[in-house]
Structure prediction request, 214 residues.
Amino acid sequence: MNLAYEYDIHLPSHSDPSKKYPAIFTLHGKGSNEQNMRGLVAPLADEFIIVNIRGDLRLGAGYQYYELKGLGNPIRESFDRAVRQLEAFIHYATEKYPIDAAGRYLLGFSQGAILSMTLALTMGEQLKGIVALNGYVPAFVKTEYALQSIDQVSVFISHGEFDSVFPVQIGKDNAAYFQQRTPNFAFKIYPTDHGVSEENQRDFVSWLQADARR
Prediction:
């Protein structure tokens, strides 16, 4: 397979080669890279396989997964391509590493959150759950994509109360949209700008630990 993405992977220390493990695939924000997500999921590294995926498109000193016409307005062709490639990568990694296909999670920030929510809707129960931090779902995804049932998919969404990139109402709209589609749902607002606070991190870490045991 000709891989679209660079990535780094961390297997639990003292992992049993005869066992498979739940996995978290992380997706960074626009202009960042896969290293930026490491700290967020570090507390989970002994329980999950962690796969940090780098966007394949250069943007300044960092990377992105798709290009934009403007803020909040993805170039459709670029976005569609990213969704296809990421889904293919998730399947590739599941075959290559000891990943439990029934325990796959996505965790994304900003552009990564946008893609995490989109992939939940397109992959459905192929995913166990997602954590989406400060993102939104493009309107064309809701109206033009072939959406799958997510009533068995766990969803944690958070947003910054003072987010200057995506106003907090967008987070509330995300919550209303997903709450109608899955009972396994959590939504929290934190007193932050466009970022992830320590409290936010503690909450999604606890949520992932509990959900993986569910």
The radius of gyration is 16 Å.
